[in-house]
Amino acid sequence: MTSSDLQNLYQQVILDHAKQKHGYGLHDGAVSSSRQVNPTCGDEITLNIHANVDGEVQSISWEGHGCSISTASASLLADIVSDEPREVLTAKIAAFRELMQSKGTIDGDEELLGDAVALAGVSRYVTRIKCAMLPWVALEDALARA
Ligand code: ZN
To answer: How far is the CA of 39 from the centre of ligand 1 (A)?
Structure first.
């Protein structure tokens, strides 16, 4: 695949997730919750975390509105949270933050981040990084409160 093929594929992943929002709709029984806003773009998210019997984070659910980058990022995040110990999630958040701060110099760890590596290109646009980070910051905050 050429790099422009990859770019197109990534764009498609983002568009698909912005439209088909995984994890959308807040579920009851959250162990913790966080609301975050990105005033520069107008993005808003409320994110709930749900635990399984072992106390691992079973899933997240979220609601909000904003640009396609923040929406796709929340949907992609929902896909990679599945029965995970807190330290694994912390590692995923750190890996995503590193990717967003990379200014396009790294591709992202697909093993940790799954399809969320499709957002790698956002790191070249300083004004959009907050959009992509918003759901991850919400997860980090919700974990801190849990
Ligand atoms: Zn935005």
So the answer is: 9
